[in-house]
Design brief:
253 residues; alpha/beta; ten-stranded mixed β-sheet
Length: 253
């Protein structure tokens, strides 16, 4: 069975996404990767095309495409453009990975096993790193800034919805929970110098919130301790970093 990785990109360099490593982690396990790139204010596209894999397909989109749907729904709309392209190309399975997430290489056998066995949809584990790449959040689900389990591996008839955190699911679908497939989420441990502007952009520019989190006004450079107590809410990372993230992690202590 053929598997297509799915990602979307906009201003990924400006906001310090680990998008190159994210895409490479998909190329290492998928038969192809389809990236929906939205015109940006930085050199994201130039760095993307330098990856130069014949299994990397780039869909170029305009700002008008980004604004076709309002608020957070633009994320699922753009994601679904890439998924529909995978479907048209005849890929029976998709793996959706956001640009600040990386699939751990330990997950590759479980991913291939799932599609070889004809599974329909899988919820996989996501580790949300916080403060530094050495720590992950250890708080109840209701306190997590984003889910620790997401539906990202499925047949290509599935579509993203809402903010594209997961693919759509209804009661007719057969669902598996596979803890052996792990995404590491590096979005909260990007360079602290850009974190504040990135959050404001997401909250107001993407999600369309009337205002941003006012805790951000308490710091010029992002201070993660304003949201989570490092002594109570964090624990050491429970898995080694993917091999391809080693240099990225060293540059963001």
């Amino acid at each position: 069975m053929k598997l297509a990785g799915i990602s979307i990109l906009k201003n990924a360099v400006k906001y310090d996404y680990c998008f190159e490593q994210s895409i490479q982690s998909m190329l290492d396990v998928c038969d192809a990767v389809i990236v929906a790139y939205v015109e940006s204010e930085d050199d994201t596209f130039e760095r993307l095309i330098k990856m130069s894999s014949d299994r990397l397909f780039i869909i170029q989109l305009k700002e008008a495409d980004w604004n076709f749907y309002p608020d957070k729904h633009r994320l699922s709309y753009i994601t679904n453009i890439a998924i529909q392209h995978a479907d048209r190309l005849g890929f029976p399975y998709i793996l959706s990975v956001q640009a600040d997430e990386v699939i751990h290489e330990r997950s590759y056998p479980a991913i291939r096993k799932f599609i070889d066995e004809g599974g329909e949809a899988a919820i996989i584990k996501r580790i949300n790193l916080w403060k530094t790449p050495d720590f992950e959040l250890n708080v109840p689900h209701e306190r997590m800034p984003c889910n620790s389990q997401v539906l990202r591996l499925a047949k290509s008839n599935f579509r993203a919805y809402d903010d594209a955190e997961s693919l759509g699911l209804d009661k007719t679908h057969e669902l598996k929970i596979i803890d052996d497939i792990v995404l590491l989420h590096y979005g909260f441990v990007r360079k602290k110098e850009v974190m504040k502007s990135k959050i404001i952009n997401m909250q107001q520019g993407v999600f369309g919130m009337a205002d941003y989190d006012k805790k951000l006004d308490e710091c010029d450079v992002f201070n993660p301790d304003l949201w989570f107590d490092p002594k109570k809410d964090l624990k050491p990372i429970s898995i080694t970093h993917p091999e391809l993230m080693k240099d990225w992690v060293k540059e963001r202590p």
